[in-house]
Known about the structure:
By secondary structure, the protein is an alpha/beta fold.
Amino acid sequence: MNNKINKIKLDSMSLEIGETTRxxxxxxxxxxxxxxxxxxxxxxxxxxxxxxxxxxxxxxxSLGFSYQKKxxxxxxxxxxxxxxxxxxxxxxxxxxxxxxxxxxxxSSERFKWDSHRKRLVMPIFDLEGRECGLVAKDMxxxxxxxxxxxxxxxxxVIKLHFPLANGELFDKTTVYVVEDILSxxxxxxxxxxxxxxxxSHLREDQIALLAKNFYSAVFAFDPDATHKAxxxxxxxHLAFKGGISTVxxxxxxxxxxxxxxxxxxxxx
Length: 268
Ligand SMILES: [Zn+2]
């Protein structure tokens, strides 16, 4: 298959029908400043690069069946393909240095390691702490041809991750909505309830679950998705009794230093 189109398809895996993303790199000119736009339609993906010097565009069909059906059929076979083990010492050091995650937190969140693919494997927990899937994050430093992060679901649940570190925090009334598991764990660890969207798309069933369990929400998306956070906040504001606020972060929460994250949480 055409490599460029293959890349667009892989990068757009999480797009729902009718959704548009500007977060994908143009496979033709390499721009990743939002100039490359991909929309998923029932029939396939429409893509266009708005850089005048590039202009790469086209349409690639779903293979004769709708994307949702394709995803449902994938869903059934999503067992993780490799054996999982303990996080090796060198990776443990990386997690402390890069994400300020001590081994005790890593172990209480039940992170594991895929030595074959060099992936950090993080279980996805629902609101009640039941494991309902996992995310395998590439830590190889770019050797892999697979997507950087792959999500596996064991069953058909509302797709959100609640860190176990949230524990007794759930009687607090505001939840911080972030994109990825590491960011959610970092925030929960500071005594603030958090949830990971596992991407930067929010659906109505996800909002409904959050609004039922929390008085208000703070959308703390990664810096490149602030515009998206504002859009969602406007759209879903009335769902929460206490409304939704958005924050513009200097960095992804997972990449902030310990003091920086603490300082930022105190400010909000
Ligand atoms: Zn381009």
